[in-house]
């Protein structure tokens, strides 16, 4: 039977590419989205992948939504925590709401979703969780104390949960994308983005599919011995 995968933020950008890559692997994919209904409907029309709407920062919504997906499609075997938002601003300008919302969605969302699907994975003795971190969680970024803290937290979350899941056949890994050609990166002011791209050794933004292929590998049976690791896919912008 086809494995069931959930991809949060799965109807657009990097998430859309991940949803498609997992579908290509023969999985039954459910894409979770929070806001843009028109884009989600177009995504389902285009790809045949079901889209479910809720806020991953809302704990109860995650529990209820994942139960609904399990009832409709089967026990969830793969979770990709990709949903993320930015509220960039320097410390002087960043409000508490800007801080809190990014932590709630980007980091809280990982806990909420893993909490909902982990028991089923443990019972089945097989699971794959991939959390999408960021180069900016590894290296920091001017104007992003909220986002960098949330993404850095994701890397710690990954290593801790990996230790818990290992004996149950559940691998937990992170991917740390660099600057990828998405709406999120397009929102960075052009002169700022130009300076960032100038520092990427391969000389260009990444493509969403280049992240998705990494996710697909980590979610495959062949990835069974990789857990607690972070795969950096950033064109050489940050190496460590
Ligand atoms: N290092 C040092 N100084 C910097 C700097 C940097 N990286 N960036 C800007 N500055 C300086 C500027 O030169 C400027 O100084 P002067 O006034 O002396 O010239 C000062 O800081 C103010 O800069 P801005 O005019 O840019 O300030 P602002 O308040 O208008 O904007 C900002 C601040 C919103 C943070 C803006 O700089 C910005 O959008 N930066 C990009 C942030 C970024 O990379 N976000 C990534 C989003 S995509 C993503 O997050 C996906 C992912 O995972 C990679």
Briefly summarize what is shown:
The protein is 49% helix and 16% strand.
Structure description:
The chain is of the alpha/beta class. It has helices at 13-24, 37-47, 59-73, 96-124, 135-139, 145-165, 183-186, 190-198, 208-219; strands at 4-8, 28-33, 50-53, 76-81, 127-132, 170-177, 230-233. A 7-stranded parallel sheet has the order 3-2-1-4-5-6-7, with helices on both faces. The protein is globular, with a radius of gyration of 17 Å. Acetoacetyl-coenzyme A binds next to helix 5 and helix 7.
Percent in strands: 15-25%
- The structural domain count equals 1
Bound molecules: acetoacetyl-coenzyme A
Rg over CA atoms, rounded to whole Å, is: 17 Å
CATH fold naming: Rossmann fold
Largest sheet: number of strands, sense, barrel closure: 7 strands, parallel
- Within CATH, the superfamily carries the name NAD(P)-binding Rossmann-like Domain
Order of helices and strands: EHEHEHEHEHHEHHHE
Individual helix count: 9
- Helix proportion: 40-55%
**Overall pLDDT, averaged?**
97
Q: What top-tier CATH class fits best? A: Alpha Beta
| CATH architectural label | 3-Layer(aba) Sandwich
Stretches where pLDDT falls below 50 for ≥5 residues?
A: none
Structural class comes to alpha/beta
Helix and strand layout, with pairings?
Elements: E1 4-8, H1 13-24, E2 28-33, H2 37-47, E3 50-53, H3 59-73, E4 76-81, H4 96-124, E5 127-132, H5 135-139, H6 145-165, E6 170-177, H7 183-186, H8 190-198, H9 208-219, E7 230-233
Parallel strand pairs: 1-2, 1-4, 2-3, 4-5, 5-6, 6-7
Helix pairs in contact: 1-9, 3-4, 4-6
This protein binds acetoacetyl-coenzyme A (CAA).
